Amino acid sequence: EKDGHAWFMLKEIAEQPQAVADTLRGRIGEHGEIMLDEVRLTDQDLRDVDKVFIVSCGTSYHAGLVAKYAIEHWTRIPCEVELASEFRYRDPVLDRSTLVVVISQSGETMDTLMALRHAKEQKARVLAICNTNGSTIPRESDAVLYTHGGPEIAVASTKAFLTQLAACFLVGLHLAQVRGVKYADEVGAVLAQLQEMPAKIEKVLAAMDPVRELGRQLAETNASTVLFIGRHVGYPVALEGALKLKELAYLHAEGFAAGELKHGPIALIAGPAGDGRAFDRGTPVVCIVPSPAGRGVLHDKIVSNIQEVRARGAHTIVIAEEGDDAVVPYADMLVRVPRTPTLLAPFVTTVPLQVLAAAIADASGHDVDQPRNLAKSVTVE
Ligand code: M6R
């Protein structure tokens, strides 16, 4: 049942190319039109939307954070992302022209369900992005887009995240198409790039041996923290990488927007203690680097952030695309991912972080599929 993998999580990581392909299947027409008929929102409904809220928890919240960059860029509609447990208790401004997108793998998360009920009471339209057919959240929503990722058994969410991204991007591109706004021209190009994601994820998966080895090394040490830094969509990827480490490896980890380092977190960085421990190489900092193409400024900024942390003794684990030579001098370890436009980069940059967390957990003797204190679906508040 685990297809030869030691854990369901590893099987689910390996299934990601197929899962993303399944989310996209049948939804992109011959002429680049996005077909979301099952969404049951009319084009007029979508033209009336003047505000988008994405509401979810945990990894699904991180998918929403990535989606915000894409949706606002393509549609020019303001988009806010909020934790479901916060959203429902703070009286958000909602009305008929607000589209509330709730994202949930299980479709049973109580906080997300309560947030959706609150949104409906305020007359907002609610669209669910969900992996579980017939679960409560899609049943109570006005519309649903299923991710078709197949069952996710491991508590730590992996393929759900990537399929949620694919679904969110389809929604964003569809909104842009229907509304015909400035960036509608980009839609065709982005759709073609989206369809290349399964092959790119496959490529990343094929090169994960060094990441597994790093995981084993980290497991042998008493590293007190692992930090993750990113900018733009790399920031939610950093948050997701840190969440995976916390829940699986029981290791303190934090994700930061790299631009915030100087405002506090850089004080956490320390050099090697010189006490001869197996991983005595300074605070591990995983750096998610965007493509140097397109948004070059973003790339240059993060390269200086990597230099800054390294100058303070960090051991830098740099995730950067093939051909990006600027990072080489500052990378203690370099993980290459295929060239990918910035907005879509999370499809490839998240994968090494999942593999790393699973490797540390496995090497530490933890139950990778069933971490302590956690349940797959959180049906209480
Ligand atoms: O089923 P949901 O997507 O609503 O679940 C949300 C979170 O509970 C979930 O993503 C959780 O954070 C995962 N265990 C993270 O790996």
Automatic annotation (TrEMBL):
What is the recorded function of this protein according to its Swiss-Prot or TrEMBL entry? Catalyzes the first step in hexosamine metabolism, converting fructose-6P into glucosamine-6P using glutamine as a nitrogen source.
The record's GO CC annotations read: cytosol
- Give the residues annotated as active site: 376 (for fru-6p isomerization activity)
Q: What is this protein called?
A: Glutamine--fructose-6-phosphate aminotransferase [isomerizing]
Q: What is its EC number?
A: 2.6.1.16
Q: Which UniProt keywords apply?
A: Aminotransferase, Cytoplasm, Glutamine amidotransferase, Repeat, Transferase
Its recorded reaction(s) are: D-fructose 6-phosphate + L-glutamine = D-glucosamine 6-phosphate + L-glutamate
Name a GO molecular-function annotation: glutamine-fructose-6-phosphate transaminase (isomerizing) activity
- GO biological process terms held by the UniProt record: carbohydrate metabolic process; fructose 6-phosphate metabolic process; protein N-linked glycosylation; UDP-N-acetylglucosamine metabolic process
Subunit field text: Homodimer.
Could you tell me the gene encoding this protein? glmS
Domain SIS, residue spans: 42-181, 214-371
Q: Which residues of the full protein are shown?
A: 254 to 634 of 634
Q: Can you say where in the cell this protein is located?
A: Cytoplasm
Query: Is Transferase tagged as a keyword?
Result: yes
